[in-house]
Amino acid sequence: MGKQGSPRSPRPMSKNTNSLFRMKDYHIRSSDSSEASVPSIGRRILGGDNYWNSEVVLLHSLKDDSGKFNPCKGAYVGTRHTWFRRNVKSIAFMLLLIAYLFLLDSLVVSIFGSINIQGSSTTRNSTRREEDNVAYIHEERPTVQMYGRLLNLASSALAEKEFKQDPLNFWEEPYRQASKWKPCADIKYPTSPGKPEKSNGYIMVSANGGLNQQRVAICNAVAVASLLNATLVLPKFLYSNVWKDPSQFGDIYQEDYFKRILKDDVDIVKEIPPHLKSLDIEAIGSLITDADIEKEAKPNDYISSVLPLLVQNRVVHFLGFGNRLGFDPLPPDLQSQLDKHLLGDFTPSISSKEHTARRGPSRYLALHLRFEEDMVAYSLCDFGGGAYEKNELEAYREVHFPLLIERLKNTKPVSPVELKKLGRCPLTPEEAALVLAAFGFKRETYIYLAGSQIYGGSSRMHPFTSLYPNLVTKETLLTSSELAPFRNFSSQLAALDFIACATSDVFAMTDSGSQLSSLVSGFRTYYGNGHAPTLRPNKKRLAAILLENSTIGWNSFEDRVRKMIKEGQRVRVRGPGRSIYRQPRCPECMCRYQ
């Protein structure tokens, strides 16, 4: 989620204020002179300052040449006067010709100069109109490279493996137990009372956050509506100054399918009845904000505090509804395959082992590389960019994270080296590439890069693309016309990333705390049938390995990275309090078959 005001590159729609000001100053200077607005062209056509300077230089050279003869005395003086009288007509003609040329030149320059002033004004105006459409304006930065020795070793190793047979182990889940867990949230339990004949009222939800937070809120809203025997009004999405996306439910999900597939569990309507629209929901006490109900509240909390309001007023409105339903205890009959209900017939299917084998060269890895400017700045880590990077991130923090700045004034600072050792620093593109190379992915592997713009742009991505050139994004895969309907809608763009990551042959994340990464991982666990591997680097362990970058051999690096990744792929059952959307492998959500 890159923020406005960043001077980094390349970043679509970013506004490099320094570069923009320089561009504006350039146009102003152009309009104030008699030159063309494009110096490299204008001076050749019109002459401009260069033309006038050449005239002056020529005149001075004539004076200098004549000056060489002025010291001559005696007989030469008389000869000079005689020569002057003899050639007076020719001299007069030359003077008239020069005067005529000066006049003509002045006229041409003034005409074209006025055109250029108008052109410069037009350029300035068009620049103002098109600032929001500029992909990026930036200064090229030198490539940032922190592990040059390891990169060279990785490049050599990838070259050696290029023509060797590709082992399939990293395209599959390494543990067979993963395939024994199957989705069963749609099983009807005998104890389930089913949908009541009469509804207790209407539940409205206005969800905050981005796509992933909203998705969790939708799922929780269905569970709460079922719990309280209520009719659910199609959720609304609050506009966020961070995401700046006005998208609503129907812009991302299939409304009709959503209502139809849940008809046996929850009644869903588009709007509340007319007789309830006139109510002041806040005045009657039916507006419930996140401050009114605790985070991850238990089902009994809703029964004791929300149900009486619902029965009395026939409507309640949850405003925000961010993570306001806990998971323990959560009755199994409240579980539902919400992803299918949200996405309908377009639900991404995770490839089976046979299908994966048939796909062959079309296999791809999806990578969610969390290295956006806001995350980089907030981490307080050092990423090898020197004083320029340090000053830039400090300026970003002062604008976007003032509370963090205040907190730092009252706490003992932790050095960037210590933060790295503790595993608190985002992985750089260079580090992510080294992990993939060590794990065994070949140079020709197709990689889909999800997420926002990478801090540092192409200069920061160069170490990655030097190892893995087949890197694509939604912006490079789609044509301009295909991308146009989504371009100004961050949640819809995030939905494209979600689908591409959820259906990839392998999904790699660099930050397990990321909402997108966590929900994609949960989706793949639930629907993957043991054939949807996810790679989760342990940042603390990886930092310890990379501390030896100046001495460690490539074989040792490979071995330690692979052990780290496989440890993160172990089949684990969801622990108490953990989100079922992130870790659905539990008896309430999935069934384990022998």
Describe this structure in words.
This is O-fucosyltransferase family protein. Pathway: Glycan metabolism. Keywords: Carbohydrate metabolism, Fucose metabolism, Glycoprotein, Glycosyltransferase, Membrane, Transferase, Transmembrane, Transmembrane helix. This protein has helices at residues 17-32, 39-46, 48-67, 75-86, 88-130, 148-161, 211-227, 249-252, 255-261, 274-277, 299-313, 338-343, 353-359, 373-379, 386-400, 402-409, 416-421, 429-439, 457-467, 474-477, 480-483, 490-502, 515-527, 539-546, 554-568; strands at residues 181-183, 202-207, 231-233, 236-237, 268-269, 287-289, 315-320, 364-368, 446-450, 471-472, 506-509, 534-535, 590-592. It has 594 residues and is an alpha/beta fold. Among the domains are: 157-179 and 361-371 and 426-592, no CATH class; 202-342; 373-425, no CATH class. The longest helix has 43 residues, at 88-130. The model is unreliable at 1-84 and 106-139 (pLDDT under 50).
Brief sketch in words of this structure:
By secondary structure, this protein is α/β, with parallel strands linked by helices.
What's the helix and strand layout?
Layout (H helix, E strand, L loop, with lengths): L16 H16 L6 H8 L1 H20 L7 H12 L1 H43 L17 H14 L19 E3 L18 E6 L3 H17 L3 E3 L2 E2 L11 H4 L2 H7 L6 E2 L4 H4 L9 E3 L9 H15 L1 E6 L17 H6 L9 H7 L4 E5 L4 H7 L6 H15 L1 H8 L6 H6 L7 H11 L6 E5 L6 H11 L3 E2 L1 H4 L2 H4 L6 H13 L3 E4 L5 H13 L6 E2 L3 H8 L7 H15 L21 E3 L2
Parallel strand pairs: 2-3, 2-4, 2-7, 3-5, 6-7, 8-9, 8-11, 9-10, 11-12
Antiparallel strand pairs: 1-13
Helix pairs in contact: 1-5, 2-3, 6-18, 14-15, 18-19, 18-25, 22-23
